[in-house]
């Protein structure tokens, strides 16, 4: 049995309001086991005996589309992978006044494209580093949506393949798995 973490894109922002209890119930009805949500930002833990991540991802997106009537996109990782991602955060996650973010993608080529595009931006004090299947991002509080990289990540072409999480949210999700 694999313990998975589904990170829903764009939930409870931009007019898509879904309670996590409803998400939990929808995935449980869709055949996923031990479904648990963390916070209201679309972090779902569950078990499945299936190991094909593309198939599991597709099935979850279908359940969400059918139940809630929106274009559902998720990034799916197993718990060992998420643990590795969190442990590898390269910046000072406790730096006062800064947000430690992890940008995840269902298509790793998108991350390389974003990293390449970031090279042309005036990032100031922002820090970005390509990790193993993620982009790590450190940005001053209050600047997330205004920063050059923040504006890049918000482009419509990345909507279906990326999601961003605060490192603390990912840590909380991992603690909920224990």
From TrEMBL:
PANTHER family in alphabetical order: BLL4334 PROTEIN, DUF1697 DOMAIN-CONTAINING PROTEIN
Superkingdom of origin organism: Bacteria
Organism: Rhodococcus gannanensis
Protein name as it appears in the record: DUF1697 domain-containing protein
Pfam families: DUF1697 (PF08002)
Lineage: Bacteria, Bacillati, Actinomycetota, Actinomycetes, Mycobacteriales
């Amino acid at each position: 049995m694999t313990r998975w973490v589904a990170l829903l894109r764009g939930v409870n922002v931009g007019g898509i309001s879904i309670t996590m209890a409803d998400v939990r119930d929808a995935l449980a009805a869709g055949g996923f086991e031990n479904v648990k949500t963390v916070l209201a930002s679309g972090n779902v833990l569950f078990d499945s005996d299936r190991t094909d991540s593309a198939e599991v991802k597709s099935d979850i997106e279908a359940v969400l589309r059918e139940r809630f009537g929106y274009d559902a996109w998720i990034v799916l990782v197993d718990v060992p992978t998420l643990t590795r991602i969190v442990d590898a955060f390269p910046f000072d996650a406790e730096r006062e006044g800064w947000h430690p973010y992890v940008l995840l993608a269902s298509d790793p080529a998108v991350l390389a494209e974003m990293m390449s595009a970031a090279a042309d931006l005036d990032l100031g004090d922002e820090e970005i580093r390509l990790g193993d299947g993620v982009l790590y991002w450190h940005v001053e509080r209050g600047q997330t949506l205004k920063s050059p990289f923040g504006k890049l990540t918000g482009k419509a072409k990345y909507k279906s393949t990326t999601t961003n999480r605060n490192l603390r949210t990912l840590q909380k999700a991992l603690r909920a798995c224990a």
